[in-house]
User: Which sequence fits this backbone?
């Protein structure tokens, strides 16, 4: 049996997260001060897979390479195989582009902005033990018209897949995680571009089903995060802080109160403030006369003064002065927010990199 590989998709335009994705790829947006892509890779490594290919786009590929080079996983550096997809022509096209890396190995394909509860280890074990040709992951959703959907028989076998149907035959949406044998390559050769001019992975899997390949589904009972929108990013930040953060206060603490599971980098400084976890304060951050509430991630080298921030993600090098209360916000890199007088009880922001907001 060949060892499994992994293919992570980290391209695409990320239109649902603009203005953020005008300046960097959505898979690099941090939750708990680490890129979403970091947690995807960690899930794959925990499943015992270290041979990892990463699909990148021409516009953002160099930044993906740079960011991943900064991280170690279990104190090890991973030698990623970066694969350029010149145009976003569909998930099946990404597999086709990566065939030189994948060769005839079984592999897990992971969209780089998806997270699931408890990782993928047990599912890979099931894939091999049952001798499957494909395993797809499904989740019940309220609006299946936004997703590819699957129809299952009574034994959990996949009978049909449809991409974003107007009249959905089920409410089981495809999660952005798949496990394939090398038979997926033959299926991709048989499909044609869809009306979107993309090679759809749903069409390829449907071809496997009609070709009598062994395709089964795993309906997820735990959480699934498709972090393609602001509220989904904040929910991912909440869950990761809830499940992975332990108390570790290393930075300078001057007359401040730090409560609960809070991580403070050793180069951060907190003065006359309260931080209530779960929360993380990044390297070189300065918090003065402020309240940082639960489910908040403050990025590296941020400066927060005379402000209250809760249930929010603030990216690196942002400066927030005298703003009162900020809630449920996603704030880009190097932003500047200030105000001169109290006007409202709370602000909610969704602003991209290098923005300047002054409230009078």
Assistant:
């Amino acid at each position: 049996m060949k060892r499994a590989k992994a293919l992570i998709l980290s391209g695409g335009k990320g239109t649902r997260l603009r203005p953020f994705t005008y300046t960097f790829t959505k898979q690099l947006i941090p939750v708990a001060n680490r890129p979403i892509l970091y947690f995807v890779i960690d899930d794959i490594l925990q499943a015992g897979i270290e041979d990892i290919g990463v699909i990148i786009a021409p516009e953002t590929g160099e930044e993906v390479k740079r960011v991943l080079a900064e991280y170690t996983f279990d104190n090890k550096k991973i030698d990623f195989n970066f694969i350029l997809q010149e145009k976003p022509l569909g998930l099946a096209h990404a597999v086709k582009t990566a065939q030189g890396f994948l060769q005839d190995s079984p592999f897990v394909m992971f969209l780089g902005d998806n997270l699931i509860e408890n990782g993928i280890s047990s599912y890979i074990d099931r894939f091999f033990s049952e001798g499957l040709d494909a395993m797809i992951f499904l989740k019940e959703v309220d609006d299946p018209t936004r997703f590819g959907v699957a129809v299952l028989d009574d034994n959990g076998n996949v009978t049909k897949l449809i991409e974003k149907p107007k009249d959905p035959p089920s409410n089981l949406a495809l999660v952005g995680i798949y496990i394939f044998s090398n038979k997926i390559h033959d299926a991709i050769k048989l499909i044609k571009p869809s009306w979107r001019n993309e090679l759809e992975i749903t069409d390829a899997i449907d071809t496997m089903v009609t070709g009598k390949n062994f395709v089964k589904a795993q309906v997820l009972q735990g959480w699934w995060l498709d972090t393609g929108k602001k509220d989904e990013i904040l929910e991912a930040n909440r869950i990761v802080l809830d499940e992975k953060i332990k108390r570790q206060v290393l930075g300078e603490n001057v007359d401040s109160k730090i409560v609960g599971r809070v991580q403070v980098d050793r180069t951060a400084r907190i003065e006359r403030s309260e931080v209530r976890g779960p929360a993380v304060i990044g390297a070189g951050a300065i918090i003065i006369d402020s309240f940082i509430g639960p489910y908040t991630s403050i990025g590296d080298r941020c400066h927060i003064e005379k402000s209250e921030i809760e249930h929010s993600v603030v990216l690196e090098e942002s400066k927030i002065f005298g703003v009162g209360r900020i809630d449920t916000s996603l704030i880009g890199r190097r932003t500047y927010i200030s105000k001169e007088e109290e006007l409202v009880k709370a602000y909610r922001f969704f602003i991209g990199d290098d923005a300047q907001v002054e409230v009078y």
Residues 251 and 266 are 4 Å apart (CA to CA).
